[in-house]
Amino acid sequence: MSTGPTHAGAAERLPDGARTGTRATIETPAQAERGAALGAFLADCRAALGDTHVLTAASAQAPFLTDWRKRYTGRACAVLRPASTAEVAAVVAAANKHDIALVTQGGNTGHAGGATPDASGAQAVLSTNRLRRIRALDAANDTITVEAGCALADVQAAARAAGRLFPLSLASEGSCTIGGNLATNAGGTAVLRHGNARALCLGLEVVTADAQVWDGLRALRKDNTGYDLRDLFIGAEGTLGVITAAVLKLQPMPAASVTAVATVDTCDDALRLLALARARADALLTGFELMSWYCVELIDSHFPTLRMPLARPGGATANGFAVLLELSDHESEAHGRALLERLLADASNEGVVRDAVVAQSLAQSQTFWAMREHIPLAQARDGLNVKHDIALPISAIGEFISSTDRAIAARWPGARMVTFGHLGDGNLHYNVQAPVGQDPADFLRAAQAPMNRLVYDQVHARGGSISAEHGIGQLKVDDLARYKSPVELALMTAVKRALDPHNRFNPGKVIAAPPVP
Amino acid sequence: MSTGPTHAGAAERLPDGARTGTRATIETPAQAERGAALGAFLADCRAALGDTHVLTAASAQAPFLTDWRKRYTGRACAVLRPASTAEVAAVVAAANKHDIALVTQGGNTGHAGGATPDASGAQAVLSTNRLRRIRALDAANDTITVEAGCALADVQAAARAAGRLFPLSLASEGSCTIGGNLATNAGGTAVLRHGNARALCLGLEVVTADAQVWDGLRALRKDNTGYDLRDLFIGAEGTLGVITAAVLKLQPMPAASVTAVATVDTCDDALRLLALARARADALLTGFELMSWYCVELIDSHFPTLRMPLARPGGATANGFAVLLELSDHESEAHGRALLERLLADASNEGVVRDAVVAQSLAQSQTFWAMREHIPLAQARDGLNVKHDIALPISAIGEFISSTDRAIAARWPGARMVTFGHLGDGNLHYNVQAPVGQDPADFLRAAQAPMNRLVYDQVHARGGSISAEHGIGQLKVDDLARYKSPVELALMTAVKRALDPHNRFNPGKVIAAPPVP
């Protein structure tokens, strides 16, 4: 470990930046050396960033030390808030000089603990929240150049002001940052049409492990000049470098979006509807979301103003699903609506769809989306649950759900399946709620590990992914090591060693074994 | 150099696999050792592939030793034709054991000499042309799994037979291979809608430098489990590993494609038409190609059956352009045609377009595309010319063309500008033909180096790319070293060293300085 031995006193002593006052314990020479290095690191950071942007007080640090889901709380020798790429490079140079590990953090909305420091107190958090400039918007090139700490919603708003769409969209868009979106290759609700964050990025600026600035801010649709470094930093969760800015692709703003909900008896029927919608609407199809009927009931009980306008398909005992479809049309709302209505009528005639409603107003359309987006909130109100963010070949999803549902029911009778997600991308949030009457916390404690294993084994057997859009962080490091082949782990380790030879960036995240320098 | 010292006798002596007969010169001990190693390598390859797939005779090797443009001719100790991934791995293992460099080659249609061995005779060509199986087609997942040596046209045909579109399309599709398309991240005519080869690939199988098989054949739209190795091998031109198979994305087959040609006075008008077409048709716009009027004249003189149905815009002395537009429609031909006609009528009313014709039949549509595709052939008939495959931010193209045209006219009066390309992607084939009356070969010899420099300087100053879709190969290795930043070159070198530590794969291509082990 390049972060060196840790000791309990570090976090309390180091915030002052100098070793003053009485110490309750006698330091070993190694501890004293380490303490001096940390003090010198903080002094260098203060010189580079100014005193007010090197946070050492516990109260100031607190918001940066616990992840969004409150699964992980770490400690940090400092929270650093650089305001420019040059300041980020200065921080990395100081970290190199004094051998301090850096944990880059954006909006701190990650789902895998990837931006939370470890418990040692020896790591520093590098917050991007002062890197907020929108550097350029080139409407004729349909690109925007933004700094890593820009909130996703601010990028969307800047694009909208120029008559353009930045299509990345996800629940935390008000607080998550573009840097975090890219570091985790975020997904969201528009992947079906526009791809993941990776597909929306043309160029990057990155501070490398040797504190250099890589200016890869290219605004080009085609560029075949050497290795694809951009896509290596994207999705690396801050373990290969610090993304400081990006060039993002913009789209023309559609004339209208039209939304519908439909009920289907089985997931296979939902897949038939998806195939029909893709064949008829192709790129106009911008959303295709699945919800098991238990999701609908959860929303109904926790958010009664959000009402599904359709009845449970197949009667009270059936396992039905609801589907949310969205078309985005560049011609007109009337054209999109007619296309969607024709599609649903034909699907109904073919027996694929039980019932369907096309939203008659923007308000109704927003209600449909709100139902979909309130599922995690309804789950949270119902108590803790076992979560899985998985992806499968679309052709395997129906069989996966029925077979895994059966396996879970056999082992945990009465467990309730909160199955929803971006069916058009093959991405399910396959979550499991405690049986009625069982304490959710007890259920989570007992079932989580074996259920994760059961579900991931089923996913792996079908060529699926154990993390579709949330990344690995610290949550799934052990799972990654289990399910990746030794060949792939060796390639990943070789890349990590090549680009971050001293394991400076986010050590312990993504790949389990830190490289030996 | 891991390929060791080369000597003139190697290619003649080694094909027999054993050192027999009289030798005209006395070998040094190093030469003898090298000869023994080559002999042992060939013996291992024959054991793995069978005698008939280890080509050593000059006549058998010849088709593999000269690139498509006939700019480079190399020599090889053998041309190896493995028929399976396991055989590729056996070849790499043998190459490791005996320290032989491997040059992977697909359809040998590259434009940058990337698949041609060097002149030493010490390298072996690893041909993928027996890796031709289509392993799977999953219509419900819209994916196809193919081996690297499949011709692009065969993949298109397999997709079509399943009612799907594989949208990658380029002039050499009858002979180029998917492995080569991926290794060079090929572009072509459908990038505007579907992206480059990289965007069409979900997963890869690769034989790595330590002769392991990385099974990354994932058929998923979302997968955030670690570093993006796939995109690192894509576009690496065979310098990081041997791509043996890939999972490719398929699209629903459109109901119809509708094509039009239009004339515009200036490139800026063409860009205005592009913006209008994107806003109105968005993803329905699948082609937007630009041709300078001199291209139209070239075709007219060499392929008189391909006639542009429109007059030169602005009269005989003006620098006009023709634009080819294509919409692909999933509703109906009538819908696509009406949309295209409305678009062109409005563009005409706004003064953006001089004149336009929508193809009235499939035959006329094919003629429009044939005109576009015959430009390089017409150029070739007219004699050699100075070629540039460049990309620019779309917003910079108009100014780039006028300013670079002026600079070229000032230095090479009378030079004729064969400017065409995929305007929607910002990708120009900015080629320059000798002035009337000047010998094309003389012109090429004298003008090529300084004109490349002039054009690339202009491209670089505007944040453009010196290789949009043809890659670096050996043609642009020196240019890459000139125009990439030291930071980026260092990152690329680190990646190369990490994944190919002994410089086994395609040494000397893409990055100039081979890594020191």
UniProtKB/TrEMBL annotation, chains A, B:
> According to its UniProt record, which protein family does this protein belong to?
Belongs to the FAD-binding oxidoreductase/transferase type 4 family.
Q: Does the keyword Flavoprotein apply?
A: yes
UniProtKB keywords: FAD, Flavoprotein
Which cofactor(s) does the record list?
A: FAD
Supply the Pfam families for this chain.
FAD-oxidase_C, FAD_binding_4
Q: Which InterPro entries match?
A: FAD-bd_oxidored_4_C (IPR004113), FAD-bd_PCMH (IPR016166), FAD-bd_PCMH-like_sf (IPR036318), FAD-bd_PCMH_sub1 (IPR016167), FAD-bd_PCMH_sub2 (IPR016169), FAD-linked_Oxase-like_C (IPR016164), FAD-oxidored/transferase_4 (IPR051264), Oxid_FAD_bind_N (IPR006094)
A single GO molecular function term of this UniProt record: catalytic activity
- Stretches that traverse the bilayer: none
- Outline the segment boundaries, as ranges, of region: Disordered: 1-22
Carries keyword Flavoprotein? yes
Which biological process annotations from GO are given for this protein? respiratory electron transport chain
Q: Which residues form the FAD-binding PCMH-type domain?
A: 72-253
Q: What is this protein called?
A: FAD/FMN-containing dehydrogenase
